[in-house]
Amino acid sequence: MENTLWGHLPLLVNTNSKESVEYILQVLWRTRKTGLDATDRLVIAEMLQLTNHSDLDPLLVCLRMLMRRCVYENISKDEIQKLFPDEVLPELQRLLTLLLQKFQREWREDVLKDQVTMPRLKAMTWNMADQDTEILDPVAVINLKKLQNDAQSSSGELEVKFQLDKDTLDTMLKSMYSMRDQLYDAGETSNGHLPRETNMV
Q: Of the candidates 97, 27, 31, 40, which has an alpha carbon nearest to the alpha carbon of residue 69?
């Protein structure tokens, strides 16, 4: 499939300017989650001087593929040009390489910002609940203090209290041991790549 897509890159020559190609890449990045709307598609098609709009989608898919590989894979700036097969025009290789190098760091920072920041556990304390004559089983009170995302809380911290009896604690511990094992396994197999996004045109 990639071999077929590369053949659409020469359409970028129709823009007649580096700034136009740069604009197209920026629009594709801005719409990476939603895909292009009708207005964006029309503007890009006009910039490319396309008489047949069916040629647009293969070109956009090819550009998004290049952008994703530069952002989500461990590709250095010096290695970007190696992504292109020999059949891609040398002048196009140079232009796209320069632009991808220009935006690679910024786009990677955007990806990290897009990732959901979960609260982190700061501290945990516990004590035995005061026993009431009507309560037969002992109960522990757990107090968790979490560090919040700045956008979630102005104070940056949140406290949560809950009670656990012996049976509930046993169930919770089994789950925690399972989580620990999976975290160890995930750490050993991690390849350091950023998570990929779904395809958008």
A: 97
Q: Which of 115, 110, 116, 114 is nearest to 26 (CA)?
A: 110
Residue-wise DSSP of 22-77: HHHHHHHHHTTTT---HHHHHHHHHHTT-S-GGGHHHHHHHHHHHHHHHHHS---G
| pLDDT level of residue 154 (50, 70, 90 thresholds) | very low
Greatest Cα pair distance, the chain, in angstroms, is 85
- Could you tell me the pTM of the whole model? 0.61
Rg, Å, the chain Cα set: 26
Instruction: Confirm if 171 and 3 have CB atoms less than 8 A apart.
Output: no
Q: What is the DSSP string of 110-169?
A: HHHHHS----EEEEEEEEEPPPPTT--S--EEEEEEEEPPTTT-SSSEEEEEEEE-HHHH
| pLDDT score for 100 | 95
N- to C-terminal Cα distance for the chain? 16
Structure tokens at 26: 């920026």
For the record, the structure tokens of 166 come out as 């012996």
Compute how many other C-beta atoms are within 10 angstroms of the C-beta atom of residue 140. 15
